[in-house]
Amino acid sequence: MPKALYSGLFLLLLSTGMPSYALTIEQAWNAAKSYDPNYQKALINEKVGEANIRSSRSQLLPELSLGASSNWYEHDKDSNGYNVTLNQVLWDSSKWSQLDASEASALESQLRSLQAHNDLAEKLITAYLELAKAQGDLRLAEQKLKEGTKMLNVIEQNFKAGKVMSTEFEDTRANQLDIEAALLARRSELEQKKAALAALINHFPQQIDEISTKNLTQPRMAVETEAEWLTMAKNNSPELLAAKQKLRSVEFKQEQAQSGYYPVVNGRVMYSDNDNARHNDLNASISVSLPLDLNGATRASVDLAKLDVLQAKQDVRLVEINIRELVQSRFNQIDLDWQRVEMAQKQIRSREKALENKQTVYKAGLANADDVITAHNNLFDSRNLLQSLLYQYWLHRVALFKSVGQLNDDTVKHISQALQS
């Protein structure tokens, strides 16, 4: 079965018959590869590069043509004839340079395809994790609303029993309205993130996996030092490798432009015959042409090609600078991110104890409702902060993996291990 048919069936199953359980990141990744137009175009450009190589190579191969003619004369004998002509380029520097440039461009297309794969993986993983975070934020908002409702009911009963003042009850009710407003905002954000992921996979997800905030352990890094990450980026970044390959391609095009100064040698062998000829005719010829560039067209082409080379060199430098900056910032940031995650865990434990104490003191009549409300809000702020920092940590890891060209199927599988339904 053709690959295109497999892709079509996969998308059809996604759009019509998705199961009720959560959509995994690996399922989303497979759907994105089949659906994303930019990635598909990059794969097509690989085939275009291969076709350009065949086209350039054909110009160096012999060219055979057959001809036939039938002539009618008013005062002479009619004639019929045919000929076979073989043309061969014996030397043409521009055609050899064109072949070299085509091969370099084809390799660049392959690297651009890897870059598109890397870029798509980052987009997909980022959209998936942002949706997972929004899903978790909504769940926390719903939990906060549920607990806030219980607290409001208790204070309302105390108010009716004359144990608390009306201001405490009104403050609690106002806080509950704030919680409900925040819940609506979370739902709105969740729908936006669903739409963003749907644009990548052609399916509107109902539920996806999330990163657990329980029993957290810092994942190991692929390599331990910044220098190792920089070396990995230098050797594997498809963006950097493609920029370097583009430089080689334009250098070959410069050679192609300079070949306009060199002679061109062509050979030809022709066999012909017709009704009126006494003998068959076989002839061979060699032609040499030497361009003089009287109008300066070749020199102008060479100058433009040299400028293209200079621009390509600067493109390589720009990519190197950006990758170095990204690796250095993300490498240092990731360690700090995890320290902040650990600190947020400690804050949550502290906030939980503070809320318990406030509730105990409130029940004893030694604190007012505002103290409990503040402790309750602080606890959920800390829980939201932990979740936010945890997803930020993974997004920074994804950016680091992208900078070194390692956003592949194995990386997606690695990230999926941190997710759960």
From TrEMBL:
Residues 104-158 form a coiled coil. GO terms for cellular component: cell outer membrane; efflux pump complex. Keywords: Cell outer membrane, Coiled coil, Membrane, Signal, Transmembrane, Transmembrane beta strand, Transport. It comes from the Bacteria. It is found in: Cell outer membrane. GO terms for molecular function: efflux transmembrane transporter activity; porin activity. Gene3D superfamilies: Outer membrane efflux proteins (OEP) (1.20.1600.10). It holds the Pfam family OEP. Its main location: membrane. Residues 1-22 form the signal peptide. InterPro entries: OMP_efflux (IPR003423), TolC-like (IPR051906). Belongs to the outer membrane factor (OMF) (TC 1.B.17) family. This is TolC family protein. It comes from Photobacterium proteolyticum.
